[in-house]
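Data availability (excerpt). All sequences and predicted token strings are deposited with the supplementary files. A representative entry, Nuclear transport factor 2 family protein, is shown inline so that the format can be inspected without opening the archive.
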Amino acid sequence: MPTVDELLARAEIGDVLARYAHAIDRGDRELARTCYHPDATDDHGRFSGTVDELFEFFETYGATLESTFHFMSPPTIALDGERAEVETYCLYRRQPVEGGAVFQGLRYFDIFERRAGRWLIAERTVILDWEHDAPPLPAAASPPTWVRGSRGDTDPAAPLTRSLAASLRRPAG
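Structure token line:
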């Protein structure tokens, strides 16, 4: 039977993973950066290095993308004290500003560490299991009555992005 501390750790780790996907897909790299410890490392396939270097890369690479979409599985978590090994499956689609979209099956293999009472990513390795060209656009597009997603403050879920950032500034407890 898991302890309350273990359940809280699992919930916090899951929140960090969800916040990361939301922030990246909404183009809020500052919010995504809050998912990592300051000295974290990341091997993201196209890039491998420190988390600061990763977000410099994201600034440049992100400008070439019209949109991204992460669909994350519930994480598989092995807790060991203040450390956790975490694997999360991800269906990922990226739409470049120019060219065709790509659809990938990824896994995030993360080492989370609890420091100063917070679980954050200390090491990340992105594992590519498969990829292919995304299907072409439908012959008949959805009608304009659909609420459309976008990056930044124009996205209909922008209030959630602001709330996530504000919750990180509130004192714990």
